[in-house]
Amino acid sequence: MRHHEDTLDAYVRRVRADADAIAVIVVGSVARGTERADSDVDVYLVVPEDVFASAVATHRVIFVERSDATYPGGYVDVKLATIAFLEAAAERGDDPVRASFEGARVVWARDGYDIVGRVAAIPALPPTVWEDRAASFISQVRLYATDFLPEAVASGNTFMLHHAAVHAVAAGGRALLALNRRLFRGPKYLDAALAGLERLPDGYAELAWRLVASPSRQSADAYVQALEAFHPWPVDRAASDSMFIRDNELAWYTRILPPEAR
Predict the structure, then answer these.
(1) What's the pLDDT at 185?
(2) Helix (H) or strand (E) holding 65
(3) How far apart are alpha carbons 101 and 93 in whole angstroms?
(4) Which of 7, 74, 107, 145 is the most buried if burial means most Cβ atoms within 10 Å?
């Protein structure tokens, strides 16, 4: 919408006069073209390392700028980044940070900086990574839904029961996203992301809702059976046990992020 672009233009005109500003990258709904009239303008402001370090120390890595808004209630939601941040995000960023750069536009950058290339690399993952993710997440489902949840039922451990159910559904959703090469933007976006997939297990949304709302051995079994029948997952149950240990209990040792943190 024009007033968002006008606000963005005003913000860029102001910050480009700052010697510490390297680039402005617009992200979020404005970049994707899904904004509402009252949406804010989300940007990454790329700055030097010392400026970023100071912002981290003073809790100013994210802040709101209202002076450039050209519409009532509008503002620019600013997150700071550095060149090294962009490179690290492309190399090892988690899904929410990668997804935040989907559709991103570099609206201004100082000469001599390849910001466009670095930004384009962030949301891209090679096929082998997606395949490993699918195996990791179905392994999470199997352990949470068929081991930990029945154990919680047998012991009467209410916390463990709900913990296992939520983690099973989160892992199942992310396994389906991995099959479709889709990034995970965050928990509040999971239902919408899954609804946008071309293929899901029959009755998936109802099965997932039932497991979270009324966790039991029956709802867990129905959920797992639907996932198992949907796709020939590239890992059997015995290997899933080891993969779960690798991804969770050994994460501190391998320094590989657990699946839910990827």
Answers:
(1) 93
(2) strand 62-65
(3) 11
(4) 145
161 vs 36: CA distance, rounded Å? 39
Strand-pair category, 41-46 with 76-81: parallel
Owner of token pair 């006069």 = 17
Cα Rg of the chain (Å, integer): 21
Q: Are 4 and 68 in contact (CB under 8 A)?
A: no
Q: What angle do CA 91, 181, 201 make, to 5 degrees?
A: 145
Phi and psi dihedrals of 193, rounded to 5?
-65, -40
Nearest to 242 by CA among 135, 117, 163: 135
Sheet holding 41-46, edge to edge: 62-65, 76-81, 41-46, 23-27, 105-109
pLDDT of residue 90: 95
Q: Cα–Cα distance between 176 and 227 in angstroms, integer?
A: 9
Q: Hey, is 178 helix, strand or coil?
A: helix
Q: Which of 166, 203, 201, 164 is nearest to 180 (CA)?
A: 201
Integer Cα distance of 204 and 141 in angstroms: 14
Question: Residue 79: beta bridge partners?
Answer: 44, 62
What is residue 137's DSSP assignment? H
- pLDDT for position 80: 98
pLDDT in tens, 27-80: 999 999 999 999 999 999 999 999 999 999 999 999 999 999 999 999 999 999
Q: Which helix (H) or strand (E) holds 135?
A: helix 127-143
CA distance 66 to 158: 46
